[in-house]
């Protein structure tokens, strides 16, 4: 098992302080991704699209679905997020392919943390791995 206390000189690989310091680059990248995404600057445009009920790209107009899961608060939350990714996924804006790439890179950071944490010796005989 991994030590609960802070400093354990006998096993630096499973030491909580060493693991915390080695995770700092991931935390810095997470903060950088949060700042660079800055969804608050896009929100006024998304709200106007939600209220109009149509998504317009030049001459193309697409209606917005009002129900996804028939759970109002979940539908309201995901509606603006799906509209934000619509230009890149619908192919209306050829330059916005980078948005999908950025989305994958942001989630690959969380996936890499999950992979690194699951490879620790303390997780060797966990119920998930058995």
Describe the structure in your own words:
Helix 2 (43-52) packs across helix 3. By secondary structure, the chain is mostly helical. The two termini are 16 Å apart. It has five helices and two strands, in the order H-H-E-E-H-H-H. The protein has a domain at 39-122.
Key structural traits:
130 residues; mainly alpha; disordered N terminus
**Integer average pLDDT:** 75
Helix content: 55-70%
Order of helices and strands: HHEEHHH
Terminal Cα span: 16 Å
Question: Over the alpha carbons, how many angstroms does the gyration radius reach?
Answer: 21 Å
How does the major sheet shape up? 2 strands, antiparallel
Classify the secondary structure makeup into a structural class: mainly alpha
Percent strand equals: 5-15%
* Beta-strand segment tally: 2
| Weakly predicted, low-confidence segments | 1-6
Present the secondary structure layout:
Layout: H1 16-37, H2 43-52, E1 54-57, E2 60-63, H3 72-84, H4 86-90, H5 97-118
Antiparallel strand pairs: 1-2
Helix pairs in contact: 2-3
Structure described in brief:
By secondary structure, the chain is mostly helical.
């Amino acid at each position: 098992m991994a030590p609960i206390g802070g400093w354990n000189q006998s096993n630096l690989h499973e030491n909580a302080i060493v693991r915390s310091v080695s995770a700092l680059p991931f935390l810095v990248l997470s903060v950088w991704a949060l700042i660079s995404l800055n969804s608050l600057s896009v929100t006024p445009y998304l709200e106007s699209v939600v209220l109009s009920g149509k998504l317009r790209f030049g001459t193309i107009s697409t209606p917005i679905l009002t129900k996804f899961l028939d759970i109002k608060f979940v539908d309201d939350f995901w509606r603006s997020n799906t509209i934000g990714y619509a230009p890149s996924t619908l192919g209306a804006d050829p330059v916005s392919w980078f948005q999908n790439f950025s989305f994958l890179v942001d989630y690959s950071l969380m996936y890499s943390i999950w992979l690194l944490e699951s490879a620790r010796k303390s997780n060797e005989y966990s119920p998930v791995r058995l």
